[in-house]
Fold this protein.
Amino acid sequence: MFEPVTDQRQYLRIREFLAEQIEHGRWHPGERLPSERTLCEQFDSARTTIRQALLHLEGEGLVFRKDRSGWFVSFPRITYDPTHHINFARIVELHGRMPRWELIGIGRVRAGPRLASFFEHRGDLDVFRMTTLCSIDDRRVALQEYFLDAEVFPDLDQISHEAPLTDTLRKHYGVQTEQRRITIRPTRLNEWQAHALGLTPSAPGLFIRRLKVERSGRVVEVDNEFWRHDIIEFSIEK
């Protein structure tokens, strides 16, 4: 049993107790934790103290929030080597999980100065902006924005996008892209990003930007990805 404590470290004690319960299988991945009100009664603590303990667990990737649904135990992370040029869906399948991509929208837009700089382009540049949602086991885990040079990939909005994007570009345009640079940093998801992933605004996330080139070394694709922070871990082997 948890014995109530009254000092300022109470939230750490609660965090430790809940973490041990998760580790020992009291709640399984994807299972909902007791409500904050129930936890307040169980630990004889204020709601702010319970929330602080849960936020610590969220920061560690042990639990996650669903907007208006409560707190849930996180699933095991997907191990990913970003230096390998392999489709992420295949990596997910190797972990025994089920990936799925959903096309949200695609359209031709004029690139702003910052986006154009990633393409190393001066002057006007038209790109196709494609937005997708990535799910693992029917749980939305990433919002992805792909920006592709409209000169290299004309009529991109007129073709089927059922296959992974790299396969589509190779099949329809004969272009094999390769990753030149990858940028990874922690972030806070804005309202639009969080809503798409079923999270609350300002939830912790992971931002990944990829610059991809075709055979001559020309940048033809810029990907901006916004991931739940508890989905992937990076492991690089030499």
Q: What stands out?
A: The domain at 10-73 is CATH 1.10.10.10 (Arc Repressor Mutant, subunit A). The chain has a mean pLDDT of 89. Residues 207 and 226 are 5 Å apart (CA to CA).
